[in-house]
């Protein structure tokens, strides 16, 4: 099944997805998107990802957005090796740490927010 990844090389959301793909040894074809060149805002890219953000994963013929949701999808479809600990408290710890970064830190230091400020 073809797998295509649309990352930006120094995007932390792209890093986390690339790390998950590498950990699970899942191959993909990269299609690099330049944020400084505003390639993520082109009509062609927005036809794939309506929010105009990276990363985007196309797995088979389906489009997947939002790095944490993509990582959870990968962990469900390709469970071995697992990304989440087996026990409940460990899973809570991973989700909490992920949400500190994904919800409380990253939105504030993002390109579009910094440009606005
Ligand atoms: N919550 C989203 C955030 C995606 C996101 O904001 N990606 C950044 C790069 S790390 C981006 O595309 N920024 C472009 C912009 O802000 O214009 C995710 O985890 O996928």
Q: Care to give the gist of this entry?
A:
By secondary structure, the chain is of the alpha+beta class. The protein contains 5 helices and 4 strands; from the N terminus they run E-H-E-H-E-E-H-H-H.
Between the first and last Cα atoms, what is the distance in angstroms? 42 Å
* Radius of gyration from the alpha-carbon trace, in angstroms: 15 Å
Global structural class: alpha+beta
What's the tally of helices?
A: 5
Ligands, ions, cofactors:
glutathione
Mean pLDDT: 96
Strand order of the largest sheet: 2-1-3-4
Large-scale geometry: globular
Largest sheet: 4 strands, mixed
Quantity of strands, as a count? 4
**Uncertain spans, ≥5 residues at pLDDT below 50?**
none
Helix content: 40-55%
Q: Would you list the SSEs in sequence order as H and E?
A: EHEHEEHHH
What portion of residues belong to β-strands? 5-15%
Report on the architecture of this protein.
- The chain is globular.
- Helix 1 runs parallel beside helix 3.
- The protein has five helices and four strands; from the N terminus they run E-H-E-H-E-E-H-H-H.
- The chain is α+β, with helices and mostly antiparallel strands and 117 residues long.
- The protein has a four-stranded mixed sheet, covered by helices on one side.
């Amino acid at each position: 099944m073809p797998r295509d990844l649309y990352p930006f090389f120094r995007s932390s959301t792209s890093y986390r997805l690339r790390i998950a793909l590498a950990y699970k040894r899942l191959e993909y074809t990269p299609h690099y998107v330049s944020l400084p060149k505003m390639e993520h805002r082109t009509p062609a890219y927005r036809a794939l990802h309506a929010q105009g953000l990276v990363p985007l994963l196309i797995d088979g013929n389906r489009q997947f957005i939002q790095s944490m949701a993509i990582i959870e999808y990968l962990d469900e479809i390709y469970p071995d090796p697992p990304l989440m600990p087996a026990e409940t408290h460990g899973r809570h710890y991973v989700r909490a740490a992920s949400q500190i970064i994904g919800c409380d830190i990253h939105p504030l230091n993002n390109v579009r927010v910094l440009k606005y400020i």
